[in-house]
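PROTEIN DESIGN WORKSHEET
SECTION A - STRUCTURE
LENGTH: 224
TOKENS:
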């Protein structure tokens, strides 16, 4: 009798298992088995996206040995000062994205002050700041060869020119006794210059600069 009861019990368990498979009670088991696979796919997708972003960035960019950037300043007239930058060598370790070279800076101008009474002139006491619009070159990612790019891309190794130009200044701004005095430009000069290297454009990877509050002149090597 006991053996028969055991056989009946085992059969009941088998039938219950069949019922579970038929009526869906085993679904949670299948769901638990699938979840790890979905997680693995998600992690793999995130890894691929991360690697793609890394490949497009310039995380390992560096100057090739002996590379440098210098800028030459020249006053074509007393009312403006022009700068052109020259690159020697180039970059290595770049990613797969466009590269932008942007030349910018700041400058000042000084003025003569003219006496409204007798017409005599004297130098104004102030340096008037100038806003200098930047100039730039953007190099396509396709011009980067095995992570290497010569300054400043296929267009050549010069960046610029960019010009600081004086603006009209009031007597007060120029440091004259008052606004009744009229002004004319004495000199214009750059006080700082910057070559920003960006990959992709908008993300700066190197900033090469030089500055002198009394004015930059001649040829100046930039510090990167």
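SECTION B - SEQUENCE
RESIDUE ASSIGNMENT:
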């Amino acid at each position: 009798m006991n053996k028969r009861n055991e056989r009946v019990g085992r059969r009941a368990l088998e039938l219950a298992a069949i019922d579970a498979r038929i009526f869906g009670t085993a679904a949670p088991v299948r769901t638990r088995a699938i979840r790890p696979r979905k997680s693995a796919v998600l992690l793999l997708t995130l890894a691929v996206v991360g690697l793609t972003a890394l490949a497009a960035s310039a995380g390992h960019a560096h100057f090739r040995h002996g590379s440098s950037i210098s800028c030459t300043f020249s006053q074509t007239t007393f009312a403006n000062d022009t700068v052109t930058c020259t690159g020697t060598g180039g970059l290595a370790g770049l990613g797969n994205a466009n590269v932008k070279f942007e030349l910018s800076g700041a400058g000042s101008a000084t003025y003569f002050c003219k006496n409204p009474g007798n017409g005599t002139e004297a130098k104004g006491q102030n340096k008037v700041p100038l806003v200098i619009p930047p100039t730039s070159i953007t190099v396509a990612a396709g011009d980067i060869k095995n992570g290497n790019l010569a300054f400043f891309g296929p267009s050549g190794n010069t960046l610029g020119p960019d010009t600081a130009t004086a603006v009209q200044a009031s007597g007060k701004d120029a440091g004259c006794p008052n606004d009744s005095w009229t002004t004319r430009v004495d000199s214009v000069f750059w006080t700082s210059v910057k070559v920003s290297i960006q990959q992709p454009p908008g993300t700066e990877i190197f900033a090469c600069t030089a500055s002198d509050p009394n004015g930059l002149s001649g040829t100046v090597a930039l510090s990167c």
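SECTION C - NOTES
DSSP finds three helices and 13 strands in the chain.
Residues 62-221 form a domain with the Immunoglobulin-like fold (CATH 2.60.40.10).
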